[in-house]
Design goal:
With 173 residues, the chain is mostly helical. 63% of the residues lie in helices and 0% in strands.
């Protein structure tokens, strides 16, 4: 059995046991109940998203080899203007670490360093690089630009969405 299969089984076992660890710090305010993911993405604060995604979207939680194909599929599905925003935010955050757009373009083999002209493949390479090398920046960008998250299908990301869904349904029992 591959470590990936074993990892998925562990996640599913935790979910089956009702492991809701990621919900413990979220406020129980009825005004913070969300109708769906888009409602969550629009009404939640970046700090709330950062808290939720930060614990769960990390190479120690989701291995890079599992996340990269997920990122490629997800980035291909988001609207071009949202893809531009995601790329722009990655570049902005990486530049704070001294990584220049043109250097990243050469290093990653991007077709351009202009977020408005980047293909889905370019943004995927940038996202994968950031996830692997700067997970804190990746988490920050996901908190600032959550459109991408709803297209991820990895079991752990599914668990994150399950935590959000539990929050949405929390007061409706």
């Amino acid at each position: 059995m591959s470590s990936s299969d074993q990892y998925k089984r562990e996640i599913n076992r935790e979910l089956a046991q009702g492991n809701v660890e990621s919900l413990k710090d979220l406020p129980a305010d009825p005004e913070q109940e969300y109708e769906n993911f888009d409602d969550f993405a629009q009404r939640s604060t970046p700090a709330q998203r950062r808290q939720l995604f930060g614990r769960n979207m990390h190479p120690n939680t989701i291995p890079t080899q599992q996340m990269e194909p997920e990122l490629q599929k997800a980035i291909a599905q988001i609207a071009p203007n949202e893809r531009d925003d995601v790329a722009r935010e990655f570049f902005k955050q990486l530049e704070k670490r001294g990584l220049k757009e043109r250097d990243l373009e050469r290093q990653l083999g991007l077709s351009t360093h202009n977020p408005n002209r980047m293909s889905a493949d370019d943004v995927s390479k940038l996202a994968a690089f950031t996830y692997h090398n700067h997970p804190d920046i990746f988490q920050e960008v996901m908190a600032e630009q959550p459109a991408l998250v709803k297209f991820l299908s990895n079991p752990v990301v599914g668990a994150i969405m399950g935590a959000v869904a539990a929050k949405w349904l929390g007061g409706r029992r």
